Amino acid sequence: MRTDTNDSWLARALARTEPEDDTARRILDAALEQFTLLGVRRSSVDDVAKRAGVSRVTVYRRFQTKDRLVEETLLRELSRFFARLDAAVAGLPTMRERVVEGFVVALRHSRAHPLLGGMLRLEPDVVLPYLTVQGGSSLGATVEYLTGHLRRAQQVEGRPDEDPRPVAELMVRVAVSFLLNPNSCIEMEDEDQARAFARRYLVPLLDA
């Protein structure tokens, strides 16, 4: 997969809308289903085309390469992830409450997501680098997304005007660590315990 800057991924994900072209939407839906069932490595453009009910030429005409198709599928899912997070915290009055609920929703959605959950099971060696040592795309974009929320909270809530990026990165890395290895003395499958964890350990970072 080609690599873009974090800002590029974030901007593209946040600005993303569903393709107006019904065929492109059908191809992306098919790609999501195909990658979820068999993983990226074992899936070909022909497999996606067959699942979408189109020719491989039609797929290449719209997405040029398999890497581009994978990237566009991931970008659409990242956009949906951010939209779900925004909807979950939009009605909460303070950044402290949004951090707590955002942490819980992010864990819940990531674990239940068919593509991420499926790829972690089928191809962990493919997914793990993009969440760890090569996490300069979707992971970096998530840090930028949270940084923007924290910066706006600084202005609205009168917080000190300091760079919130380190706090955002630490919060994202904590969430990713629980996603990758849920075995812990803290039962993150229990949302009440997850909220208690976020209140005790993540919320104080806002004042660090």
TrEMBL record:
| Origin: domain of life | Bacteria
**Which UniProt keywords are listed?**
DNA-binding
Which parts of the sequence belong to the HTH tetR-type domain? 21-81
Which sequence positions fall in the DNA-binding region? 44-63
Tell me what organism the protein belongs to: Streptomyces althioticus subsp. attaecolombicae
Q: What is this protein called?
A: TetR/AcrR family transcriptional regulator
Per the database entry, which stretches of residues form a coiled coil?
A: none
SUPFAM superfamilies with a match to the protein in the record: Homeodomain-like
